[in-house]
Amino acid sequence: MQSNQELTDLLALDLGLNIVNRRPYAKEVFKWQDMDLLPHSSADTLLCEIFEWNGRNWRTTGNNLIGYLFSDEALNTVKQQLISTPKHPALIPDFEFTKDSMIEYGLSLPSLFNIGINGNIKSAKSFSVRVNGVTKSRITNIDSPGIEILKSYSSFTQSKSKTYRKNIKFNFLSTSLFYAESVEIYLEKESGVGLDVSFQTQNVEVEAKIDMDTKKNFVLKYSGNQAPFAAQFTKGKDFDIM
After folding, report:
1. What residues contact residue 45 under an 8 Å CB cut-off, 6+ apart?
2. Is the dihedral angle over the CA atoms 7, 141, 229, 226 positive or is it negative?
């Protein structure tokens, strides 16, 4: 498997960047992989969830493609297959969300990793979230349930054309989901500044490297049914999972 440095060098070459003595930034990784931060995340976020794009932000419709394609026992079978879709190394380097990018993305970013922010991020001297060991699940046209989904989708666009145009054709489907093995939080602030971090501890192992009033450094290691933090989206009319 390629090392972090090899993957960083490949990213830098493809994007024409000079990355020295630092991790790639999230924006660089997202551009390289054509991936986007999810607007929400929970352990039940599945592949083929349907999202809207308003020109600036993603928003889930609360629907999943398979709900239109299957029913009864077939729906339950395909849902379980999606839940069980294996995760493989995403072959992207460990990367970092900086303080500036966290401000740009807003408070949705820390919540994607089960991190609570108490106070104003802008008041921090330094703040970063470093993402490690990214894995990826995806659907393809050579594995179940992708085979069944694609076959049913093809006939659905013809037999239920009105429903297809209204709900799916111009919206987007999550065709890949990305997960973190662990994240590292680094916070530095002036003494007395009202800014702190907290985290959910269910299925999360927390290692405190530094925990002082002015400096905090935690590593969160995830286990169990993880929640994804990012996705690759495909427009409904272009969906063929080739």
Report:
1. 38, 174, 177, 227, 228
2. negative
**Do the beta carbons of residue 83 and residue 144 sit within 8 Å?**
no
User: Could you tell me the two tokens for 181?
Assistant: 């093995």
C-alpha to C-alpha distance for 160 and 171, rounded to whole angstroms: 16
Q: Which residues contact 162 (CB under 8 A, 6 or more apart)?
A: none
Q: What confidence score (pLDDT) does residue 122 get?
A: 87
pLDDT of residue 241: 62
Q: Which tokens go with 35?
A: 């991936």
CB 212 within 8 A of CB 193: no
Whether the pTM exceeds 0.90: the reply is yes
Chain length of the chain: 242
Positions in the chain short of pLDDT 70: 1, 106-110, 241-242
Structure tokens belonging to residue 140: 């393809």
According to DSSP H, which parts of 84-209 are helical? 99-105, 108-112, 146-159, 161-167
204 close to 216: Cβ distance less than 8 angstroms? no
